[in-house]
Input
Amino acid sequence: MDYSKTPEADFRNRLHAELRQTRKFAVRLGDVYREHGWRLSEKASKAVARQELLPTDLTDDHFEFGLRQKGVDMRIGTDMASITLKRQANIIILVAGDSDFVTTAKLARREGVEVILDPMGWSVRPALFEHIDGVQTGLPRRQMPQLNEQPE
Output
């Protein structure tokens, strides 16, 4: 399957292209690596463990291909630290939700920069809430298309 041809890839490519043209906005993308081959999805694995789904009932839809994006958190964190220490901004809007940004958000706030978090509808790790000044969501969480869905 060519993932670059999926509806999700098309949406993300268009979104990133538009964001790159936005004033005072930086897009930081990581590198995508194959983490492993096909594996049982976490949801299906839990259903099998709870005996809600029998192994004989598994279909292709219960499996996912192991791809992982690496390096993006470090790039964002380095940018935040640089912007903060050079006093290039008073407010940083961080579009994320994981606790990898606790240290950088803490540094920014100690240096007087306001950190606003936009998790885009995704859940936020509790450890990050302590080190931000507020949450403002600009986009609701999108439903990810299934691998077998056809583009509209």
